[in-house]
Amino acid sequence: MKRTERLVNFVSGRKFRKSWYAFIIAFFLIFVILPTVYVLTYTYTQWNAIQSNVLDNKETVDMILGAIAASFEIAAIVTIIDFVVGLPMAWMLVRKKFRGKNLLDTLIDMPLAVPTAALGFSSAIFWAATPSAMNAPPFALGAITSPMLLIILLHIVFSYPYMVRSLAAILEQIDETYEIAGQTLGASKLTAVRTITLPLFRAGLVTGIILCFSRSLSETGGTMIALSTMANSAGFNTGPTLIGTWKKLSGSNPELIPQLAFVSILLIIIALVLLVILKLVVMKVRLPMGKIWPTPEKILSRGLVPKMKDGFTVLFLAFFILIPSFFIFSFVATSSAAVGDWGPFLNSLGYSFAIAAIVTVIDLALGIPLALYISRNPSKKISHSLDILVNVPLIVPTAALGFSLGQFWTDQSLIPSVPTLLIILAHVAFTYPLVVRNVTGAMEEIDPSYEETARTLGAKPIQGFRRVLYPMIKSSILAGSIMAFTRSLGETGATQAVVSDVVTAPVYIVQLVNTNQYYLAGLACIILIIVSYAAMLLLRYLTRRKQGAL
Amino acid sequence: MPEIRLEGIRKRYGSIKAADDLELSVKDGEYICLLGPTGAGKTTALRIIAGLTEPDSGKVFFDDHDVTDMEPEDRKAVLLSQSYSLFPHMTVAENVLFGPNIRNWSEEARIKTLANMLDLVRLTRRSDAYPKELSGGMQQRTALARALASGAEVLLLDEPLRALDARLRISLRYELRSLAKSLGITTIHVTHDQDEALVMADRIAVIRNGKIQQIGTPIEVFERPISPFVANFLGQSNFFQGSVTYVNGRTEVRDEQGRTVAAGTANVEVGERVAVGIKVGNTEITKEHDGYLQGIVERTLFEGRDVFVDVMVAGLGRFSSRIPAGRSGEFSVGDKVSIDWSPEKATVFRLKDRSLDDELRVE
Amino acid sequence: MPDVEMKDITMRWGNVIAAEDVNLKIQDGEYVTILGPSGCGKTTLVRIIAGILKQTKGGVYIDGKNMADVPTEERDIGYVFQNIALFPHLDVMENVSYGPRVRDVKKPEWERISHKYLELVKLLDKMKMFPSELCGGEQQKVSLARALSTGARLLLLDEPLSALDARVRVDLRYELRRLVKSLGLTTLHVTHDQEEAMSVSDRIVLMRSGRIVESDTPETMYMRPKSIFAAYFIGETNLLEGSIKKTDAAATTVELRDGTLIEVATTDFREGDPVVISVRPEYVYPAVAGIHAIVSSVTFVGTHFRIVAVADSDDKVEFDVPATVEREYNKGDDVNLTIDKRSAIVYARTPGELGEATKLE
User: Fold this and answer.
1) Which domain holds residue B325?
2) What ranges do the domains of chain A cover?
3) By the 8 A CB rule, do A167 and A205 touch?
4) Cα–Cα distance, B208 to B205 (Å, whole number)
5) Does B151 share its domain with B212?
6) C98 to A175: CB separation less than 8 angstroms, yes or no
7) Å from C77 to nearest chain A CA?
8) How many domains does chain C have?
9) C301·B199 Cβ contact <8 A
């Protein structure tokens, strides 16, 4: 008792608090931000190699630019589609009351729990024309022959939930009174939404766009699997798949490093520019009230149109998101069984889980303090710049991040470049922002007067956190850890880009598909899905047990 | 219970001065109301005393100990926010026991405190309820019990009655004050409601633009305001502007149109530009004799106990008078009336080069 | 100009009844206030009239027309919200012109309209400012101008003043009534503040637990309330418990619990009936004889002192003495009090009713 008291007093001292926060910020900058953008220094230190190996070689340049253009094109199209179909869905979830709302709410999150490698395999079987060796079920669509279209369809599956969730979160914060006020002034529902709610919505929109865009831009594993599953991908590459392929080859051919660096640099720079534009410009531009078309908008607000919109929204979810996600079950059910060696897969599965667990723990331990610092710092400037920095690892494509981080830790000699350690560091870099963002968001919702009251009642800051704040933000912490955990579990791009010869579960599935062992790949996917689901449910159960009161 | 003293407190937020050389001293066990309009710096003063806001300069003393750098949790000064900030995930009992739990009191002491506190605020039967299941008044009482159970020696109340219905607010004024007084706790209560301050405070500190304009007992502040702002903020006043024409025992003031009014003694000189303020409740309107000013009844407003009669005086604007509802039949809109007051009820304010409108602005 | 009628309105949320069988008619050009404690269903009623909520049962008629299938935007109402709800991303001018613009009014015309209403609330000089740059009172004035700019003839005010400072509130309520009356609008105002209700309205409708308790002019509601709840809720009052000792054509005599006799204006009660006398503090006077009481507190409330005393009958009696008199009462003093016969009202007393009637939450 005495000792805990002394500990509480010690950690509550101003000195300790100051150095603790300094440590957290230093960790964030050195272990997350710096490695993420480290490769940018190559434009200075390695320019000659880049010049001679890449820029002087027209074929390579064309290949790189083609892949990157494809990446951004896909990401842009996916984001637009997500927004168009995600907004009505977010609306339904927040503003409407109907039977089965809870079910719908759960269904939307389902693709999040499926590792993207499994998603890529599953949706490719459903959509794409597949080689006959594969024996796709007869009711698979098998119609898509354009690799680009297939990748767009695939990316929509896993980015859609992000868009819906971020839009819904903001929508919940916007006071419905504004819309009602608009209606009492004579605006039809649609006019009120368009002229009042949407402009107030920009913050949510920016978050949604950043998340979707960066997810699509980063995605590697699912994309690679989808491409090798379809009958003829004709050497189609996106930026991240290019990094993945080249990194694998670079083991035997170090000449490829400048190419890799160049792709990564381009991806990182373009992504950062986009982030700055979205964060600074979009939020500051004042939209004029714009034109108003009372009559057509009134017609669109009534009768069949809204019903059709809702119907279409639900159909889209079912047909474009859920069926492709889980099509793999029917594939495995209809395929003839094949015998294989499960040892390597189980090993890789165990390895992946261990990594994901360690990464999640690090994220929580070092992410929550940063979130507290950001949301409760009296200086708006510091909070704001940290907040923008947190987004950096999110928007930088993970393959580029992985490559950059790998180079960073091998170029210096502080930490031995043990593969497992590097993978953990890489996964921390891109999952850390998920925890920080979730917790920051929740904290900003909570009136600081709760903690302040606790303090005037005699609670040290750490006691105030434990007893007052933690119970209130528990669900956001949970959401953050689930995201970080599943993200780490399913990630392929960064893993491959950091170390080319370590086999995590999704990397193993990619290998299976590449060697045409489709049935085994399918089974492995299903096992991965089931195991991640179980982990999620367990986590929920553990945190919910003591929450009866709320 | 401690005495509290603020010395030269300054606090700026950008260009806004939330505290501008703020000086205040509160006696042991005293009930003080900080009264002022929104944005006057009342809440900032409260937060500085609680230790939740650090002043840019100046010092805070509790019983002559400098506590400016002391952490809020060590001050035994409990802040009750406007919304009460009851912890939503704890029951009434758990909320009340928050302080004792933090301080690791013995089981026995906790049970005893809980029983006492719940009894004190009459919530024994609701001890297992969650805050959201309670009415506004009960939430406020729970927050009070929680503050007292933590061993508070100073109670800092930030508009504690604002969230409640108007009628309930009136009945809770007495209850809140007598609870604080019976426990002898030093209390600082922030409010924008002058009636509330008059009824509840031992002393009222009228605050504006981060400065204390006047501090004194309700009677002092109400009857002997030192500025037109104080005169108007507490109990609403009518104003007459002009130059002093006579000073001796009483003061006479004449405006540009040659109308002369009389007021109480004041430290002013003949020829000086002044404003004369008369409380609405001390402004007599009559048809029987000629008063200082003549005007026409513009409207009458019924408020239950009293009726407000607004009289338009040419060139001066509206003069209001509050008369008992029983007399409301005497006046109707359009009547020619006279306005009168006893000189000792009118206060003279030196204007120097300030404009009266600036002096009176409440927002 | 419209009149509004509510017929048998009932509103249920699951098991909770927010309004039950409410019948209310508001005349053309009338200023009606619905007054009641939190949770009495008053806001639910205006929201039903506006079409924001759909009633479980009953009908709303504006100008005799059933509103069942008319959406909010076509009911032609002005609505002022408690939380003000100015559009934060639009400036004052854009806020006020929003109504005309969404009704397809063309530019020179909506500019003229917005100018007119901003002028009316004396804020023309602030038309380029954003809501966050205005103080509370100004914000609510803009929101009023915005509600009026649609040309609506029916104005619904949902606790329009409760977010404001006490002082600003008082100034603004006069302003509110002046504007509404000069434009000749039909107005329904919802509030929990009895003083506000009395000073602005032509008629007060008192509600409690989803039902209308009574409805009358402010003067009658204050002077001759029909229920103990109305007497207690609208203004402060002393409630003395007793029973009828004697009654005849000239007067009724009530015996308090300690045997003190009080004479009031004649009533229809019979001898022995248990009753409560309600008398407002300003109609209780110190005297040489009458109700004997001990002073328990003296409080300065501006122009007078409020004195609370406990009578021998255990009833609490409050009365006022002018502040001009030197403080002549102190805690513990004996006083004798009489009441104004004509201003006292006698109600029947049933067991438990008094506690029920004076419960404010």
Assistant:
1) 284-340
2) 15-547
3) yes
4) 10
5) yes
6) no
7) 6
8) 2
9) yes
**Contact by Cβ (8 Å): B350, B322:** no
Which amino acid is present at A175? D
**Residue B200 tokens, joined:** 């509840």
Which structural domain, as residue segments, surrounds residue C300?
A: 238-357
For residues B87 and B159, membership in a common domain is answered with yes
Tokens for C142? 């803009």
Contact B170, C236 (CB under 8 A): yes
**Alpha-carbon gap, residue A348 to A336, rounded angstroms:** 25
Using the beta-carbon criterion (under 8 Å), do A181 and C77 form an inter-chain contact?
Answer: no
Measured distance CA(B234)–CA(B222) in Å, rounded:
6
| CATH number among 3.40.50.300, 3.40.50.720, 3.30.70.2660, 1.10.3720.10, domain A15-547 | 1.10.3720.10
Contacts of C85 in chain A (CB under 8 A): 175, 177-178, 180-181
Residue A99 C-alpha from the chain's centroid = 30
DSSP at A288: P
Q: Is B76 on the interface with A (CB under 8 A)?
A: yes
Reading chain B (363 residues) residue by residue, the pLDDT tens digits are 789 999 999 999 888 889 999 999 999 999 999 999 988 899 999 999 999 999 999 999 999 999 999 999 899 999 998 889 999 999 999 999 999 998 888 999 999 999 999 998 889 999 999 999 988 889 999 999 999 999 889 999 999 998 888 888 888 898 899 999 998 999 999 999 999 999 999 999 999 999 999 999 999 999 999 999 999 998 889 999 999 999 988 899 999 888 999 999 988 999 999 999 999 989 999 988 888 999 999 888 888 888 889 999 988 888 999 988 888 788 889 999 999 999 998 999 998 777 888 888 776
Same domain, B253 and B294: no
The ipTM value here is 0.85
Dihedral sign, CA of A475, A479, A482, A485? negative
Q: Where are the beta strands (DSSP E) in chain B?
A: 4-13, 16-26, 31-35, 57-62, 65-66, 77-80, 154-158, 186-191, 203-208, 211-216, 237-248, 250-254, 260-263, 273-279, 284-286, 293-302, 306-313, 317-324, 336-340, 346-350
